[in-house]
Amino acid sequence: MVDGLTGVSGNFPRLIEADIDSIRDNPDQPRTVFDEEALNALADSIERYGLQQPILIAELPERGTYRLVAGERRLRAHQRLGRKTIYAIITTGKPEEITIIENVLREDLDAVDFARGLERLIETHGYTHEALGAVIGKDATVVTKALTVLRLPSDILADYQTNRARAVSASVLREIAETGNEDTQRRLWKRASQGLTVQQLRAAKKAEATGEPGNAETLAVAKSIKAIGRAIEKLKANGSPLPNIHRSRLAELHAEIGHLLADG
């Protein structure tokens, strides 16, 4: 272990080159999912350009041992590279609080781990939504909205983190969570897993609330029918002639609509 800074104020953060084997796991790590491709990419970057940001550690009572506070992805990348040491800053703050705050500020944290990190800060340190928003540099409404995803059933949260985090946005997940009924949440989650946008999901939620059947395609057709109806009324009122190219396409649609109505 090599001391990186000497002859400085006692309050200045200490930078050391720590033995990786001396660093213990972090029980307060908010991140539960580690993307393998991203870890490999980080390891490649460190191998090429070096570590750009030291990890944070805290001293443990046992001499020469440390607890990881922040930087687990960087530590894992070093382990993949077979490195024996890593640059680290020794912090004297509250490790569990620093850990969670440092992680929730990372943009690559998925919506569920982000919400759980916020929840842990509230439970452990008694933050209000307003105070927590100030700590992480966000408005209180951001905290409130983020926490809504924890209303979802555990199987949906697990599926999101395991299979869907890249395909389903945090906004879509929150839209589903705001629907209180679990059966409805599961139906909407099934649709969202197939690639619904926020607008399409809101339309599906409205259909669920009003008891109207329909998937994303039928909801889109319903909106189009209304728009076409309004356009035809304007066309009739203005007495404008219909171009031949539109006449031909309308004739094709007329035949297709006829088949749909006959099937119904």
TrEMBL record:
Q: Which residues form the ParB-like N-terminal domain?
A: 16-104
Q: Matching SUPFAM superfamilies, A to Z?
A: ParB/Sulfiredoxin (SSF110849)
- Thylakoid as a keyword of this entry, yes or no, is no
Q: Which UniProt keywords apply?
A: Chromosome partition
- Which InterPro entries does UniProt cross-reference here? Chromosome_partition/occlusion (IPR050336), HTH_ParB/Spo0J (IPR041468), ParB/RepB/Spo0J (IPR004437), ParB/Sulfiredoxin_sf (IPR036086), ParB_N (IPR003115)
- A UniProt-annotated Pfam family: ParB_N
Keyword Cell membrane recorded:
no
PANTHER family, sorted: CHROMOSOME-PARTITIONING PROTEIN PARB-RELATED
User: Which family does the record assign?
Assistant: Belongs to the ParB family.
Protein name listed in UniProt: ParB/RepB/Spo0J family partition protein
Tell me the organism. Answer: Azospirillum oleiclasticum
The upper taxonomy is: Bacteria, Pseudomonadati, Pseudomonadota, Alphaproteobacteria, Rhodospirillales
